[in-house]
């Protein structure tokens, strides 16, 4: 640039300075609010619009950093409607479009602040104002409840309705994320009725339609929450509330027991009624799936009478009508379970709905007889078993759920027993009576005719038993107390005939030979046994009263004579 041109430029700048034109580097007075969005949250579900009600914190300073006002210093947020002239114009403009948790620096020129008048003792005239603002809450009078389902069980047979009693966990925060309450921190659910005015309106509405186990986020505007008053020191006035809710369970005071038949046997000849004794396995859970008890974990069925008040009323009702082998789900409301107090021993909270998945093993009634089903009976069967008969039979024994217990087929030969001699359980003895050789039966034996409440080795207490029996052979027995009976009148000179060598004494060999001869000639018969020699030996021992190895005339007596003298087990 030529020297003359440089002189001309300097003169021009001097004149502009004298005339009051802004010097270089001075932007001059601001025409609008300067907005610096120095923090914007990643998620912004809503921006403040004209007419919205907002809550925010701020610090207000002058250009030199001197503070003239602060909501923080007062310990309370500022609440008001944006964009309707209730704030200074610069603040009205600077707050619009903000997200919850967004932070802004605002520079408000005087004409959009307090102008040439200022605020006496606080803000001088023509002051430019600097605000550092954080948005905490935004809502509108036209807002509705905002419900977001976070997770929902696949299975949902029922949802919450008005007048239901609910148990739920929750975390409660303000819209900016500030926590104010949590049921988790108290270690217990919040329990209450829905739709009866016990909750804030927004929560009353937000819980409707929920399934047990469902999780929801519920955003409640202030007019459906605590409104202008707020709640204590934790919820400010005009605060929107955010609840993260997990519905644990619910019921209605009018509810009865709900039954779900998971598996019912095709053949169900009988259903349980009041007074029956039931053996069943179960898993007990709360509605959220928490296991509180299980018979499987103890490897032992739960055994009880139903309809007698020995178990909770809901289970008393829920087991009515079950079939043997049935699997059933029983859902029991608390007023038919453990009520408001719960059961600490079983980890059952107060007012908890209980779910029992039940598998019925068997049941019986104390008045039940043996149930006999004839599977096969030979034609032309004229001779059947009676008490005192000696029988050989095969059997398979199991529980009613099919659990195999014992079988005669596991041994080399059939089972042998004298009926009516108290050698087998009463129910089996009854089931073997009036059978033909070759006949097959199925016997259902209740425990009072089986092994009773105590059970036996391998047999659970109070178990109903199922026997498959086949009669292989039978031998006619003798009356109780007899080891041998005559088919006719015994010989008048019995001792002389028995004393084969006529030496005045009858040793064991002579006695055995005589008895065997009588049996062989059909004149009498021994008590049936798998060991006839032992029976004869017992007979001899009973007659040899002084145990000297010989029977004398004074010692030998008929059983009929012994009966009169109240002495048993003789000839």
From TrEMBL:
Alphabetized InterPro entries for the sequence: EF-hand-dom_pair, EF_Hand_1_Ca_BS, EF_hand_dom, FKBP-like_isomerase, PPIase_dom_sf, PPIase_FKBP_dom
Keyword GTP-binding: no
Reaction equation(s) it catalyzes: [protein]-peptidylproline (omega=180) = [protein]-peptidylproline (omega=0)
PPIase FKBP-type domain sequence ranges: 51-139, 163-251, 275-364, 388-475
Location in the cell: Endoplasmic reticulum
Region Disordered, residue ranges: 540-571
PROSITE patterns for the chain: EF_HAND_1, EF_HAND_2, FKBP_PPIASE
EC number: 5.2.1.8
Enzyme class: isomerase
Record's signal peptide: 1-25
Keywords (A to Z) from UniProt: Calcium, Endoplasmic reticulum, Glycoprotein, Isomerase, Metal-binding, Repeat, Rotamase, Signal
A GO cellular component entry from the record: endoplasmic reticulum
Protein name per Swiss-Prot or TrEMBL: peptidylprolyl isomerase
Species, as recorded: Erithacus rubecula (European robin)
């Amino acid at each position: 640039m030529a020297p003359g041109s440089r002189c001309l430029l300097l003169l021009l700048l001097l004149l502009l300075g004298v005339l009051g034109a802004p010097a270089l580097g001075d932007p001059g007075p601001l025409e609008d609010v300067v907005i610096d969005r120095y923090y914007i949250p990643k998620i912004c579900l809503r921006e403040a619009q004209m007419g919205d009600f907002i809550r925010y914190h701020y610090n207000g300073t002058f250009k030199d950093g001197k503070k003239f006002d602060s909501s923080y210093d007062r310990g309370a947020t500022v609440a008001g409607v944006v964009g309707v002239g209730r704030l200074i114009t610069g603040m009205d403009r600077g707050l619009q479009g903000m997200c919850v948790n967004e932070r802004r620096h605002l520079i408000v020129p005087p004409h959009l602040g307090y102008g040439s008048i200022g605020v006496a003792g606080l803000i001088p005239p023509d002051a430019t104002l600097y605000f550092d603002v954080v948005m905490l809450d935004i809502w509108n009078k036209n807002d509705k409840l905002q419900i977001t389902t976070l997770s929902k069980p696949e299975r949902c047979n029922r949802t919450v309705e008005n007048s239901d009693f609910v148990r739920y966990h929750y975390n409660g925060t303000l819209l900016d994320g500030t926590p104010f309450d949590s049921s988790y921190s108290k270690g217990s659910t919040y329990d209450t009725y829905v739709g009866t005015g016990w909750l804030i309106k927004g929560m009353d509405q937000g819980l409707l339609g929920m399934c047990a186990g469902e999780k929801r986020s519920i955003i409640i505007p202030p007019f459906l929450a605590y409104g202008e008053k707020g709640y204590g020191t934790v919820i400010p006035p005009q605060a929107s509330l955010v609840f993260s809710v997990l519905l644990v369970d619910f019921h209605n005071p009018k509810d009865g027991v709900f039954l779900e038949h998971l598996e019912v046997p095709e053949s169900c000849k009988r259903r349980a009624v009041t007074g029956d004794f039931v053996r069943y396995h179960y898993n007990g859970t709360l509605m959220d799936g928490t296991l509180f008890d299980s018979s499987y974990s103890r490897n032992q069925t739960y055994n009880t009478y139903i309809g007698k008040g020995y178990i909770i009323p809901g289970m008393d009702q829920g087991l009515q009508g079950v079939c043997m082998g049935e699997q059933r789900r029983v859902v029991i409301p608390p007023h038919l379970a453990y009520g408001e107090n719960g059961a600490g021993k079983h980890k059952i909270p107060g007012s908890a709905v209980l779910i029992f998945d039940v598998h019925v093993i068997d049941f019986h009634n104390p008045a039940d007889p043996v149930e006999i089903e004839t599977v096969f009976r030979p034609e032309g069967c004229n001779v059947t078993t009676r008490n005192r008969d000696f029988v050989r039979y095969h059997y398979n024994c199991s529980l009613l759920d099919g659990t195999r217990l014992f079988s005669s087929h596991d041994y080399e030969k059939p089972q042998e027993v004298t009926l009516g001699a108290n050698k087998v359980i009463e129910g089996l003895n009854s089931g073997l009576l009036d059978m033909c050789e070759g006949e097959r039966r199925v016997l259902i034996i209740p425990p009072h005719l089986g092994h009773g409440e105590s059970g036996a080795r391998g047999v659970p207490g109070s178990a109903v038993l199922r026997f498959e029996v086949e009669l292989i052979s039978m031998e006619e027995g003798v009356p109780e107390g007899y080891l041998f009976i005559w088919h006719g009148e015994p010989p008048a000179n019995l001792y002389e005939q028995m004393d084969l060598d006529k030496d005045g004494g009858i040793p064991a060999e002579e006695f055995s030979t005589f008895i065997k001869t009588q049996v062989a000639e059909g004149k009498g018969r021994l008590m049936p046994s798998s060991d006839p020699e032992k029976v004869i030996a017992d007979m001899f021992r009973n007659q040899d009263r002084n145990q000297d190895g010989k029977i004398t005339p004074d010692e030998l007596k008929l059983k009929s004579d012994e009966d009169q003298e109240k002495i048993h087990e003789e000839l």
